[in-house]
Structure formats: C-alpha cells, structure tokens
Amino acid sequence: MSARLRLTVVTHYFAEHGGGIERVAGRLCEDLTTRHGHTVRWFASHTDSLTSDSESPVERIASVVERVAVPNWNGIERSTGLPYPLWSVAGLRALARAIEQSDAVHVHDFSYFGSLAAARIARSRGVPLLLTQHTGAVRTGSRAFATLYGVGERTIGRWLFATAAAVTCVSETTRAHWRPIVRDATKLQTVWNGLDFDDTIRVDDRERGRWRAAWGVRDDRPIVLFVGRRIRKKGIEIVHGVARAMPQVTFLIAGQGPIDPEVWALPNVRTLGYVASERVGELYELADVLLLPSYAEGFPLVVQEALVRGTAVLSTAEVAAACPPVAESIAHCPIPERDDAQPWIRTLERLLTESIGEPDRTRRAERARGLWSRTRCAAEYDAILRRIAVQRPDGGTAKFA
Question: What DSSP element (H or E) covers 272?
Fold first, then answer.
C-alpha cells in the first residue's frame, strides 16, 4: 500500500462561502482523504457558518477533513466585494506548525494572503509546494487595480510559481496566461476540475417541469440563470441590462454580493440569494440558459456544472476557449470592456430559439460528462502530490502532531 501523505491545503475561504475555488478545493480535500487515504488539514478564513444539514456536501467534507478556521479581517470583501481576507498572526503561527509537519502543501491561487504566507513558510521549511491556479487575467474595470495586479503577477507571482514544485491550471486559457512566467514548463499542466454528477439524471422536459414547479417558476416562459458572486467582475450589471431588455424571459439570480438586484425593480427578475451547492443542480435542471458575462475567468465551475446537466451556456470567448473539447457547447460574446448588454441580448435571443431543446441538452450533457470525472481529477492530484512529496529534504513522510 502506498504511503499516506500529510497534506496542508490553503484557500482564502471554506466551501460554505460559495465560490468556485473553495468548492473545488473542498471536494478535492474530501477525495484525497476518503479515496486516497491521506490526512488533510485545510486552512481557510473563518467567515461563514456551517449548515445544520448533515447530508450537505459542506457538512460531509467537514466530517472527514480537519478544517482549521483562521481568524481574519474580511473588511475588503465587505466594502468592495473583492474576496481578500487578511489572516491573524495566531492563524499564521498555526499554519507554520502544520506545514512543518507536512509532506506537501497545496495552495489555490497565488495572490491570496494565505497562499503567499503558506508558500513562504513552505520554502523556508523545505516542504514541497503544489500551486493550483484557477484564474488567469484579472479584469475589474479599475485601471489602478489592473495595474497593481499586473505588477503582482510579474513580481510575487513569478516568485511563487518558481517556488512551487508543481503547478496545475484548471483551463487552457489559464495555462496560456501563466506560461510566459514559468521557466520550467515541465512542472505546468492542466487538470480539469472534477464534478459530482449522477449518470441517472434525466435530461428531459418532464424533469425540468418538475423542478420548475418545485421552485415556483412559471413553465411557459424561458428561464435564464445567473450563478455567482453579485459583483461587477462577474458581469451582474450586464445581466441587469439584459433582463431589462427581455421582459418576456424570467431571470433567476443565485448568489451573494454587494449588488442587490432587488433595487432594479424588474418583475421578471427573481433574486434567490445564497443557494446551497446541493440545490444549485436543481436550478441548472430547470433553466434554459446559464448566463455568465464575466470580465475575467479561468474555467468557471458553474459552467461545468451547467453543461453536465445539458443547460445551454452563454459566457465569454475566453471561457469558451478554456476547454477546447466543449468550446462548441458554449455560446459566447467578446470579453466585456464595459457594462454593454447589447451583444448579450442579441446572442441570448438567438440561443433561446436555437439551442434549448431536449436533443441539444442531451448532446451537451453527454460530451461534458465524458470529460470531468471527479475520480480522475482526484487521481491526478494524488499522483502529483506523491511525486513532489519525495522532494522533502528528509524524504518524508511527515507526521502531524
């Protein structure tokens, strides 16, 4: 039997925060523990409460993975919508102790405070580092922020990518963005996020009608779904413009954030707020189209989740190029430069008349399900972590206290 590794995993938030990065990390932590026998300590900011539902994926992960909730200041997100928690000194000390006892460290996205701290500690302790990069280019509409982030890429980013023993990217566009700063191309690879999906899910109109009734949604109108943080970077203001121009379409908005669609006062918009991950699948089932007009993305988890259920997707050309095998399944517009809804209105009108029938849904679902196996994803990460763990000066394996 292969040796069991002691792993420290670092993200900015836990899965209950609702973002794609932390949800992907949570699934992977669970799989590395239950499928591959490793011991995982997951460090993230303590900002959200667990649910009381023991059957939820978040609770299930918490029951098998040791989670270390780091005290932090999350004022940046509360005031601007930018998810950037700053960790306490006590939390950093606990992180340092865990890394010293680890065979490898796995951080998600280079730019977060916890990721940078973990990388520096791992390097000083001689513990191999795996970096998973979810995002590529960052566009927020703020020239000052874009300039600052660009400087960070060329300095801190270059250092962290050089420090990492291995780097995985979740899409081809993410990999292409970072390839110029990675000197050793052999340590850079694409690993698609793995998904949970039930092969028995029926992609048919009867099932969709059932979910529409359960959510109290009219079955005689097209339904467009937005899932994500309600911030400008995700294109929520473009969604506003599209919804205003298409009163004959129902728009469902799932997610949290500082922008409140209720103030739009549009009768065809329904704001759902936070929706637990185990129920988001129902929304994909009942929707005709997932609309995600983001200013910058790697390969969003919500796009994958929609496609495995056959839902049509309208996003950007960047997202369509992120996974070439499913590019033709993603309708797209150019990357937004301002909150101009017109290109999205025209493309959505065409999509709703051409690509939402049952045969189209079945074709999209079959193609996507053949690509994004959760078992395969976990196995790839297990192999990478085992490979880099032997690079410890003492040859591993370490023991958590």
Answer: strand 269-273
Q: For the purposes of burial, counting CB atoms within 10 Å of the CB of 59, is it exposed (0-12), middle (13-18) or buried (19 or more)?
A: middle
Cα–Cα nearest to 305, from 348, 359, 254, 368: 368
User: What is the DSSP secondary structure assignment for residue 227, as one 8-state letter?
Assistant: E
- Residues in CB range of 265: below 8 A, 6 or more apart: none
**Alpha-carbon gap, residue 94 to 269, rounded angstroms:** 45
Residue 259 φ/ψ, nearest 5 degrees: -90, 125
pLDDT in tens, 148-187: 777 888 889 899 999 999 999 998 989 998 998 888 888 8
- Radius of gyration over alpha carbons of the chain, in Å? 21
* pLDDT, tens digit (0-9, with 9 covering 90-100), for 51-76: 544 456 777 888 889 999 999 999 99
CA distance 198 to 5: 30
| Domains, the chain | 6-194+373-389 (3.40.50.2000), 205-369 (3.40.50.2000)
* Helices then strands, each counted (H, E), the chain: 16, 15
Q: What pTM, to 2 d.p., does this model score?
A: 0.79
Q: Closest by alpha carbon to 83, among 92, 72, 93?
A: 72
DSSP at 195: B
The closest of 156, 160, 300, 171 to 227, measured between CA atoms, is: 300
Distance CA 188, CA 131 (A): 10
Minimal CA–CA distance to 254: which of 290, 221, 218, 288?
A: 290
**How far apart, in whole angstroms, are the C-alpha atoms of residue 169 and residue 189?**
6
